[in-house]
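Operator note (shift B, R.M.): manual run for 5'-3' exonuclease domain-containing protein requested after the automated queue skipped it. Running by hand, logging everything below so the morning shift can see what happened. Input copied straight from the record, untouched. If output looks odd, do not overwrite the archive copy; leave it for review.
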Amino acid sequence: MVYNKKNIDYLLIDGTSHLYRAYYSFSSLSNKNGIPSGAIYGVINTLKKLVLEYPYSQIIIAFDSPNKTFRHTLFQYYKINRKMMPNNLKVQIKPLYRIIKTIGFPIIIMPNFEADDIIGTLAHEANNKNKFTLISTNDKDLGQLVNSHTSILEMKSKKILGEEEIKKKHGVIPTLIPDLFGLMGDKSDNIPGVSRIGEKTAICLLKKFGSLKNIYNNTDKISQCSFRGAKNIAKILIKNKTLAFLSQNLATIKTDILMPKSINELKTSPISTYELSYLFKYYDFHNWLRLLNQGEWLTNTSILKLYNKT
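Run finished. Output pasted below as returned.
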């Protein structure tokens, strides 16, 4: 697929990924009363840029559930290595949601699920409708959703990653990313994987046998492989079979959760100018307040004018 700004039907934004990046990028920012505002500023500024960059796309923002999810039920140590959310970030969450809704963007938060699962379900629905989706994130897990109709917009590089780019990045095709983490684990989420199997060995096994399931169906053939330590790998795999499939399950993004609305119903609503003006003033976002008062903050005219210049 050749991408341009007109053929992206849906822009799905990993709000949680953007939230943490914004917080650490603008951690010192606060209003005149000392109330933290860096995460709010960073996320809204990014959303503003994305809207201007993709004015023809339907934008939907997903955030993690604030409570534990089904993955914690499967594995009590899931993400146990993560630090607790800083208080200075926590106090910005509800105001951020309020501003996003005031601007008119739909927000989806589902109890028991992560933003990944919401995005996975929406992307799957869009794919079934033969629509094209772009996912804005830095989360490597979301690479498993990439196909002929779904791509990743990397937050850091601003590059669009399709199937070939994901394969080059991870060493396996997108659909095998959960299998890869099933074998090698994922330290960032405290997914255990199989002890003593690293990335290179995991990729080699998946290239030879095609999936985690097929690897376990052919453990008698692993000793014939050419990579180092092949003779012992089969024993290690058999010993850790339960952990391998648990890890694969933990790394698999849901694409079938029950959503309150269909993707077509999650539309942008008109900006509530009065409330947005109050919030911008409260958080000392003076430049945005000026643009809002002049009618130049995310208006169709300003968006299309910018689009026509690029």
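Quick read of the result: Residues 129 and 208 are 34 Å apart (CA to CA). The first strand starts at residue 10 and ends at 14.
Leaving this for review. - R.M.
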